[in-house]
Amino acid sequence: MSERDVHLLAEKADMIVRGYAFFRRKDGHIGILNLEHPDCAMVVSRDAEMIETNMDEIEQAIVIELCRKNLQFMEAQDAEVLQG
């Protein structure tokens, strides 16, 4: 993936935390991409339960922790849009 492609993805992200871009998916899950290593990705449920990934175990633990601490902010954005 080119640097330009990564930049475009970062612009489309719903949230970026510590170099990981979070995207709402149409199926209700959250896609997560490591912007420094865009070949590393994860899909989690809205409850931060891992569905699939190609990340190593250490990175998985880091990303799941980031999810648990930060997915509430994506939900807060959803609530603002609904109230907006």
Largest sheet: 5 strands, antiparallel
Task: Kindly provide the radius of gyration, computed on alpha-carbon positions and rounded to a whole number of angstroms.
Answer: 13 Å
Strand content: 25-35%
Termini gap: 36 Å
Number of DSSP strand runs? 5
Biggest sheet strand order reads: 1-2-3-4-5
Helix content: 40-55%
Q: What's the shape? A: globular
Q: Give the count of helical stretches.
A: 2
Class per helix and strand makeup: alpha+beta
Low-confidence stretches: 78-84
Along the chain, the helix and strand elements come as: HEEEEEH
Mean pLDDT: 88
Total domain units: 1
Explain this structure.
With 84 residues, this protein is α+β, with helices and mostly antiparallel strands. The protein has one domain (3-83). The protein has 2 helices and 5 strands; from the N terminus they run αβββββα. It has helices spanning 3-12, 57-83; strands at residues 15-17, 20-24, 30-34, 41-44, 50-53. The chain has a 5-stranded antiparallel sheet, sandwiched between helices. A hairpin with a 2-residue loop joins strand 1 (15-17) and strand 2 (20-24). The longest helix has 27 residues, at 57-83. It is globular. It starts with a helix and ends with a helix. Residues 78-84 have low confidence and may be disordered.
